[in-house]
């Protein structure tokens, strides 16, 4: 008999702005409602909530392309998200978050949320957003796993391995009918990934030899910040954070601590004018900067100490004519490099490599794969084929 469960995808043949709706008879639940990236030719979905009833919206994580448009969902529809995701939208969109506060329920790994005939269970995943979830969705005739964005090389890789090989499978009674999976990096050059732990070890080597380091990563990536913090603390260095980004950087700490002790970078110091004190000269520092003139002045101030610059974002931000080129960041970098002794590039991807997609599929052995979050859904289907359960 044909399944009564229906999976609809909206704007899913691209990376970002994807929306998935799972329906069983009269119950429909949505996953994510974010913006397409500015480079998108497909755009964001304007879901017709009036015509197509939605009973609840679940968010996989706090990235803009997944949660950014929560304030466009009609009021009254219950929303479910991790506590840190709620905190993040309160920071990014305080008015919107206040208006929707009464409709938001925070959920944790293993919770069983019943929406009509459908049961949803969140599991902690490994991604560049703290508190990312994979969801098990159980309808009366189907077990579905929605991967959200994921990877298997961050601090949370061990947790996700365990979840994929055991807890998620158990929640599906050993039988996964469909995996809705991301496929962001399906055509990436298959270079080996640097793990977050590997990045931490590399940073330790740098800090062992260099007492003064300026470093750049987006302020909404607490995992990369943790990696550099943990490395700095090994050598007793100060860890400064630019005043302009101190609020978002520090707001993740209480949530991170709950998830894994490696995210505990409590001992950070808000700074916008480093004094040449005895303490600073003795201990040295790692300074998480943001892109502004004051931070550039701070770098220039330390010229005679030959500081190093660590760039922990995609390297193509700095290369003109590349799709991801960001001229303000590239200008800053070029100016900083006039006084810095050396630069280091270290970036951990938030997404699964082809090898990691295969590991996920091998663990879950679904009957069917539904690709989302990829420019090449057909390639994701082809990659999946050998792992499908007959
Ligand atoms: Zn995404
Ligand atoms: Zn993401």
TrEMBL record:
SUPFAM superfamilies recorded for this chain? Answer: Metallo-hydrolase/oxidoreductase
Classification via InterPro entries = Metallo-B-lactamas, RibonucZ/Hydroxyglut_hydro, RMMBL, RNase_J_2
**This protein's record includes keyword Signal:** no
Q: Which domain of life is it from?
A: Bacteria
| Molecular function via GO | exonuclease activity; RNA binding
Q: Show where the Metallo-beta-lactamase domain sits.
A: 16-197
Asked if the Swiss-Prot or TrEMBL record annotates the protein with the keyword Hydrolase, the reply is yes
Q: Which UniProt keywords apply?
A: Exonuclease, Hydrolase, Nuclease, RNA-binding
Tell me the SMART domains matching this sequence.
Answer: Lactamase_B
Q: What is this protein called?
A: RNA-metabolising metallo-beta-lactamase
């Amino acid at each position: 008999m044909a399944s009564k469960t229906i999976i609809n995808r909206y704007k899913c043949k691209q990376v970002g702005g994807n929306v998935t709706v799972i329906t069983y008879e009269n119950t429909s639940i949505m996953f994510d409602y974010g913006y397409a990236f500015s480079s998108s030719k497909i755009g964001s979905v304007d879901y017709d909530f009036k015509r197509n009833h939605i009973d609840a919206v679940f968010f996989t994580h706090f990235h803009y392309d997944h949660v950014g448009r929560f304030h466009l969902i009609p009021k009254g529809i219950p929303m479910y998200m991790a506590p840190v995701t709620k905190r993040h939208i309160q920071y990014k969109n305080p008015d919107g978050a206040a208006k929707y506060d009464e409709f938001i329920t925070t959920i944790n790994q293993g919770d069983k949320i019943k929406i009509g005939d459908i049961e949803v269970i969140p599991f902690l995943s490994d991604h560049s957003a703290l508190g990312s979830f994979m969801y098990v969705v159980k309808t009366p005739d189907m077990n579905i796993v929605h991967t959200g964005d994921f990877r298997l090389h961050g601090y949370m890789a061990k947790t996700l391995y365990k979840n994929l090989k055991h807890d998620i499978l158990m929640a599906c009674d050993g039988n996964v009918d469909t995996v809705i999976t991301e496929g962001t990096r399906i055509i990436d050059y298959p270079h080996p990934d640097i793990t977050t732990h590997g990045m931490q070890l590399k940073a330790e080597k740098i800090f062992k030899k260099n007492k003064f380091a300026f470093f750049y990563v987006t302020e909404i990536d607490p995992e990369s910040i943790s990696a550099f913090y943990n490395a700095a603390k090994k050598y007793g260095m100060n860890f400064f954070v630019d005043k302009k980004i101190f609020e978002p950087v520090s707001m993740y700490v209480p949530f991170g601590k709950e998830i894994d002790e490696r995210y505990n970078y409590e001992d950070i110091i808000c700074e916008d004018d480093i004094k040449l004190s005895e303490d600073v000269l003795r201990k040295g520092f790692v300074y998480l900067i943001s892109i502004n003139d004051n931070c550039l002045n701070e770098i220039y101030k330390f010229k005679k100490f030959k500081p190093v610059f660590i760039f922990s974002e995609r390297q193509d931000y700095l290369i003109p004519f590349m799709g991801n080129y960001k001229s303000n960041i590239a200008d800053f970098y070029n100016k900083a490099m006039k006084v810095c002794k050396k630069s280091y590039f270290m970036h951990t991807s938030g997404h699964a490599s082809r090898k990691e997609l295969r590991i996920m599929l091998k663990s879950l052995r679904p009957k069917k794969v539904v690709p989302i979050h990829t420019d090449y859904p057909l390639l994701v289907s082809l990659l999946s084929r050998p792992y499908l359960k007959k």
